[in-house]
TrEMBL record:
Keywords: Signal. The lineage of its organism: Bacteria, Bacillati, Candidatus Dormiibacterota, Candidatus Dormibacteria, Candidatus Dormibacterales. InterPro entries: 6-blade_b-propeller_TolB-like, SbsA_Ig. Pfam families: Big_5 (PF13205). It comes from Candidatus Nephthysia bennettiae. This is Ig-like domain-containing protein.
């Protein structure tokens, strides 16, 4: 024998590691195999690599145990020469895996109902056995994934928000095995209590829609961890977040609206509308019903704002509105103060205005201006303070202006030529700079992909851009950095072959 594995007196040997013996010459394989054994015995089988190397593959050995490899005398080489010596050596296997910690920690009393649960072990675990060994009480459906930065840590994601003010226990039985097949040394349990849901922060909301459905299957959230979670179970046509992201405003397939608290309560609202949004806390709701823009106050009074309205948008803070109205052969943007109940003109244009977007500081308003030539559509921005000037930011087949947190840059999408076909790309443009003479695929984001981008939504800190793009024929939620790097697909609904489309993405306000 010229080489052995595990080596003599080796420690912490993986329990599923094969035993290997390399000889200096070709051997009679039957004579060797019949004299080879492990003590204590392990069920397995001998196979050969070439005519000189024995490989013993086996069921997992006992953890934290010493094994002896024995080759009894009498084995022969290929020429018939017999070896009369007994060969043996020992090694010790690794210890059984142990749960070493968790987040939330045992006994935590103020856990965010939106939090993930992480479990840390001494070694990388087998997810299939772990999924069968973990239970959550009260019962909560969940998904598991290894932390990509540390395979010893497992992330448990409840498929819905946990209930506020409730105690939960996560138990792990000894049936859980590590990646080497060792059972968990001890069963463990971690108990904690959730607090009231205060707000959702840094989540991307969206509607998931089953094939051929009349409306979406609830409001879902997802983040960089790629665990889509349903926060509202209801038939949804569209939704919007409250200013503090503790409520969602839902429109059903028949146009009825409700105010749904993420803690579970819901209020049916006494209007049908094409669009609605939260105003500031205590100020009610704005809604658009067949061209009539109205406000339902917190006290239940309906205030008429304007008629012949095309679309509307609520400013950050929820105390102002901007909306479009037809004006002769063109259109104009008007503003409205909710507190003063005062309407005022902001901007007039000679074409169709839509896709209103307030800047995060509330001092500018971006919009799309369409004319007769779709390839000459403009994205424009109107300053509402100081010089109060209006500038063109982009020209082309453009849409979807979305502000970054600095209120100086816009993310827009544009259809541009590509080698195979026209694609829609995202572009980061500075407000006030001359618009690019021509938008090209080479300038667009994401640059390394042929994905066609739609429905962009910028994170509250301005560093990331969520968008929709097709994956396996269905719209999925994707994420990239604001410079186009770090492309990540966040959703893939394909369990059991059932596909879901994603739409109406919107970051939480904070």
């Amino acid at each position: 024998m010229v080489q052995i594995s595990p080596e003599r007196n080796a420690q912490d040997v993986p329990s599923d590691a094969p035993v290997r013996v390399l000889f200096d010459r070709a051997v009679d394989q039957t004579s060797v195999a019949t004299r080879f054994r492990l003590e204590p015995g392990v069920v397995g089988q001998v196979r050969w690599q070439g005519d000189r190397e024995l490989v013993f593959e086996h069921q997992p050995m006992r953890p934290a145990s010493t094994y002896e490899v024995v080759l009894d005398p009498g084995y022969r080489d290929a020429q018939g020469t017999t070896n009369a010596l007994r060969h043996s050596w020992r090694f010790s296997t690794e210890a059984a895996p142990v749960l070493t910690g968790s987040s939330p920690a045992a006994g935590d009393q103020s856990v965010d109902p939106a939090a993930y649960i992480s479990l840390s072990f001494t070694r990388a675990m087998d997810l299939r056995s772990l999924a069968q060994a973990i239970s959550v009480s009260p019962s909560v459906p969940f998904s598991l994934r290894q932390d990509p930065s540390d395979p010893r840590r497992v992330i448990l994601a409840p498929e819905a928000l946990l209930d506020s003010g409730r105690s939960y226990t996560v138990a792990v039985t000894q049936d859980a095995r590590d990646a080497d097949g060792n059972r968990l040394r001890d069963g463990s349990a971690v108990s904690f209590t959730t607090r009231e849901l205060r707000t959702l922060k840094h989540w991307i909301g969206f509607v998931a829609e089953p094939p051929r459905a009349a409306a979406g299957d609830g409001v879902w959230i997802v983040d960089e961890n790629r665990f889509p979670r349903r926060v509202v179970s209801a038939s949804v046509d569209q939704f919007s977040w409250s200013q503090d992201a503790t409520h969602v405003l839902l429109r059903s397939a028949v146009g009825a609206w409700s105010d749904q608290s993420l803690s579970g309560s819901a209020t049916t609202l006494p209007f049908k509308a094409d669009w609605a949004a939260f105003l500031a806390p205590g100020k009610g709701y704005a809604y658009l019903d067949q061209g009539a823009l109205k406000i339902l106050t917190a006290g239940g009074t309906v205030v008429s704002v304007a008629s012949n309205v095309g679309e509307a948008s609520v400013a950050p803070g929820g105390a102002r509105l901007a909306f479009t109205v037809t004006a002769g052969s063109g259109a104009e943007i008007d503003g409205y103060s909710v507190d003063l109940r005062a309407r005022y003109r902001l901007q007039a244009e000679g074409g169709l205005i839509d896709q209103l977007a307030w800047s995060p500081d509330g001092q500018s308003l971006a919009y799309r201006l369409a004319g007769g030539d779709p390839t000459r559509t403009q994205i424009r921005a109107r300053q509402l303070s100081g010089a109060a000037r209006t500038v063109t930011v982009a020209v082309g087949e453009v849409s979807g202006p979305a502000w970054q947190a600095d209120s100086r840059h816009l993310i827009v999408t544009a259809a541009v030529p590509a080698p195979a076909a026209r694609v829609s790309k995202a572009f980061r443009l500075a407000v006030g700079d001359p618009p690019p003479a021509r938008l090209s695929a080479a300038q667009g984001m994401p640059g390394s992909s042929n994905l066609s981008v739609s429905q962009v939504s910028v994170s509250p800190d301005g560093h990331q851009v969520a968008f929709l793009a097709s994956y396996q024929g269905l719209p999925a939620v994707w994420l990239m950095n604001a410079d186009g790097t770090g492309l990540t697909r966040l959703t893939q609904f394909d369990a059991g072959g059932l596909g879901y489309s994603c739409r109406d993405i919107a970051w939480t306000p904070s």
